[in-house]
Amino acid sequence: MRTNLAATAGRWSAHHRRAAILGWLAFVVIAFVVGGAIGTKTLSPVDMGNGESQRAGRAIEAADFPKYAEERILVQDRGTIGHNDVATRAVVADVVLRLSGLPFVYDVRSPLSGGRSGQISRDGRSALVRFKLAGDDDRAQSRVDSTLAVTAAVQRDNPAMRVEQFGDASVNKAIEESFKSDFDRAETTSLPVTLAILLIAFGSVVAAGVPLLLGITAVIAALGLLGPISHLIPVSDMVGPVVLLIGLAVGVDYSLFYLRRKIEERDRGASGEDALQMAAATSGRAVLVSGMTVIVAMSGMFLAGNTVFTSFGVGTIVVVAVAMLGSVTVLPAVLAALGDHVEWGKVPIISRRRHDGDSRLWGAILDRVLRRPILSLVLGTGLLVTLALPAVGMHT
Question: Which CATH class name applies to 58-172?
Answer without folding.
Answer: alpha beta
